[in-house]
Amino acid sequence: MPPIDLRSDTVTQPTPAMCEAMMAAPLGDDVLHDEPTVRALEERVAGLLGKDDAAFVPSGTMANQCAIRSQTQPGDEVLIHPDSHVYYYETGAWAAISGVSLRFVDGERGVFSANDMAALVRPDDHHFPPTRLVSVENTHNRGGGRVWPTDQLRAVSERAHELGLRVHMDGARLWNAHVATGRDLSAIAAFADTVSVCFSKGPGCPVGSCVAGDADTLKRVRRIRKILGGAMRQSGVL
User: Fold this and answer.
1) Dist. CA 95–CA 66, nearest whole Å
2) Which residues are CB-contacts of 102 (< 8 A; sequence separation ≥ 6)?
3) Which tens digits make up the pLDDT trace of 150-207?
4) 8 A C-beta contact, residue 234 and residue 206
């Protein structure tokens, strides 16, 4: 029997039943917004997360970067933990695509406090980049898969919104937080304006993520997805 591959949950493989479903999926053209299988997926994900809409993208990195670009302007600043996937594993895309800078909020195993976050918000002064967005990762990969404590996540979200900031949740492994806490996905996602989720890890799909949020933000996300080359045609097979 071959050894179990524990390098990452990204090496999961689609099951035979999944492969059969891919071949049987009704197809359209997602760029023309008439891909029935993709729309069904997006509506299902939006419903699970309690958001207006969701957009299917090829990767978790694209999902995060679409979320950042849709909620910032070049020159803005994003508050984020220094071990976050967005910073550590996404090749500087936040700078290349969105033209934003990052300011690090420290915290144990990827989780920081509302007070530490709020202390780093820039004053309204033309010398400084405007603080625009807070990014959290749940579960936190480099934190050993740490789940954000609900009260702490709520406090960060509420303080951020009080300060006029948007909140993005990198929920690539949000399914794990759901199982670990027993809380509905929508209850966890409610703390963020945009949420990304990934299908190619625990769920075992070969490709894909979704980014979910309010209707206006998702209109911008779809435009950015097109700019980045992430709008696909008969993508229902994925």
Assistant:
1) 13
2) 77, 78, 79, 80, 87, 94
3) 999 999 999 999 999 999 999 999 999 999 999 999 999 999 999 999 999 888 899 9
4) no
